[in-house]
Amino acid sequence: MKTLPILLLSIIFVFGCTQAVSETDFSQNNSNSNPSSNSNEKENENLNLTGNQYKEFSKTTYQQALQNNKIIFLEFHADWCPTCVVQKPVLVETFKEIPTDVAGIEVNYKDARTDADEEDLARKFGVSLQHTHIIIDSEENVLVRGIGQWNKAVILDKISFARDELGE
After folding, report:
1. How far is it, in rounded angstroms, from Cα 19 to Cα 148?
2. pLDDT tens for each residue of 1-31
3. Dihedral (CA of 53, 59, 62, 67) sign
4. For position 69, what pLDDT does the model report?
5. What does the H/E/C string look like for 73-127?
6. CA angle 8-147-139, nearest 5°?
7. What's the mean per-residue pLDDT of the chain?
């Protein structure tokens, strides 16, 4: 009789841990990115941050977002992570509909493209897993934090919550 509650808790735990990746496509992203690519290339690509597009991280892009946007959505991403691979197109499409007061930035996390600035940012926000989402204000205060796969409705809801936290 004592084993029944333990068995039920075990089932709930396993289901909860796998739910975030249950719809994940486990195909590999065979991107041929150069691990030694320098961050100046990323900076040149991202100089015109408009706020309503999902961009790759560079120190310049991040600094501009802090100066020009009230809300910044940081997505800690790894190319080898199945959840991240599925999450990226959802973020790209969702950010086409988000107003320009929100900047979306993909931060490489523990993959071949991760640079020292990205490592510093992950440390700063205490990121210990890829597929971590952090929404901050322009003073780098964390408004929302989560992990796993978020669909479009959840992303929009979390951004709305962040706006409410700022009193907008």
Report:
1. 9
2. 555 545 444 444 333 333 333 332 322 233 3
3. negative
4. 73
5. EEEEECCCCHHHHHHHHHHHHHHCCCCCCEEEEEEECCCCCCCHHHHHHHHHCCC
6. 145
7. 77
Alpha-carbon span 35 to 115, nearest angstrom: 9
**Region label for 7, one of left (φ > 0), alpha (ψ between -120 and 50) or beta (otherwise):** alpha
How far is Cα 70 from Cα 141, in angstroms, rounded to an integer?
A: 11
Homologous superfamily of 40-166: Glutaredoxin (3.40.30.10)
Q: Quick: pLDDT tens for 58-85.
A: 999 999 999 987 799 999 999 999 999 9
Q: Which two tokens stand for residue 66?
A: 């802090």
- Is the pTM value of this prediction over 0.90? no
Strands 132-137 and 71-77: antiparallel
Nearest to 25 by CA among 111, 107, 87, 101: 87
Query: Residue 146 above 80 pLDDT?
Result: yes
